[in-house]
Write a structure and sequence with these properties.
Shape: elongated
Number of helices: 4
Strand order of the largest sheet: 4-3-5-6
Number of domains: 1
Order of helices and strands: HHEEHHEEEE
Number of strands: 6
Structural class: alpha+beta
Strand content: 15-25%
Largest sheet: 4 strands, antiparallel
Distance between the termini: 83 Å
Length: 221
Amino acid sequence: MRLTLFVFWRRLLRDTRATAMLEFALSAPLLLSIGLFGAEAANRAITQMRVNQIAVLVADNASRVGENSLLGEVSIYESDINDIFIGADIQAGERFALLDNGRIILSSLEVLEESEDQQYIHWQRCMGDLDHPSSYGKEGDGEFSNMEGMGPPGEEIYAFRGEAVMFVEVAMTYQPIAVDLFDASQPIVAIAAFNVRNNRDLSGVKQRNANAPDPIANCGA
């Protein structure tokens, strides 16, 4: 009996037919983990890039949009802003679901009419289901207090008198592929700003038809 066991173990130790399979079984969890981490990292980077692109797209479109009037100034309407937001959602793609998982905040940074260079947020519009207030101020900020501009501390953007800056902040909740490796509770945020490209009427956002007004994308809604 002992001899039989001895022969069995000796043959087993010499048998190398399953070596590759054994090595694969031992290394597979590590390889799969590395692959999953790489896929999540790539997906996160792509999401950040797309959020950045959306912020630039919205700021650029908001700086160009408007309708010429007989006075030579371009007016901006609530319907224009709604179209910009919906267009950004379409541009992002159905799988991205921007307005379901994120929020777009558009602010008009201007100089207070009674001052030389006092910055203030004349109006602000938002769209998206994500609960994310503006990181750089809300409508009316700067009207009764000093405001350096909009943007990260030390990198604020400011408007010149008689002009406006379309400042955009986009926040998006990251949707992981399989495992939340990057704390999806913290949204991905991007900002962008463009000077208004034309002689815009800075009196405010208007309605095309007062009897049938378009929805206002209020930030408090």
